[in-house]
Design brief:
The protein is α+β, with helices and mostly antiparallel strands and 224 residues long. The protein is built from nine helices and five strands. Helix 2 crosses helix 3.
Length: 224
Amino acid sequence: MGITQWPARERPREKLLARGPRALSDAELLAIFLRTGVRGASAVDLGRTLLERCGSLSGVFGADLRQLTALPGLGAAKCAQLLAAFELARRALAERVAAGDALASPAAVRDYLRLSLGSRGHEVFLAVLLDAQNRVIAEEELFRGTLTQTSVYPREVVKCALRHNAAAVIFAHNHPSGVAEPSQADRTLTETLRRSLALVDVRVLDHFVVGRGEAASFAERGLL
């Protein structure tokens, strides 16, 4: 049965308008972007299949066009809508982070980094450069590695901070395994970077380790 034949209160669009977006499941929200289903499957069914195949909502947003179009019922138009929605969410969070003191809105920083890094299939190390008032100057992806490791060179990190005349920096990298737990290597690297940057009077405010759906903060754990 198609969605148009459902009771009005159960249709995703009408349900959202009547009760707000938080009343909808992930599959129902995806259905609004997908708009139509395929023979034998409604848009909500497609949303559920998409979540199952990708493992989570973060997995859906982390998939690229090739991965999405390989799923049944998803053509280029539907995939373009999903990718656009993801990018809008990422940019909205980036604006929140850049608008004020990054330390005053740790949840926004965490959410932005989760959205940016949480579903990458390879390890990425990035730096968020801040001025003396902890306002975001720039963000740079400094290193990209394999599924298990990446090489981070302190000299290049220091050069990046000096190039932007940064007063402070927040680091972040992802664990493609999905587990947001700092390893001993992560701790050693963070301490090496902290000492290197201290020589040029740049503070390391935090280092986030991002997994699927979560992010661990060094500062919150007392590791800085």
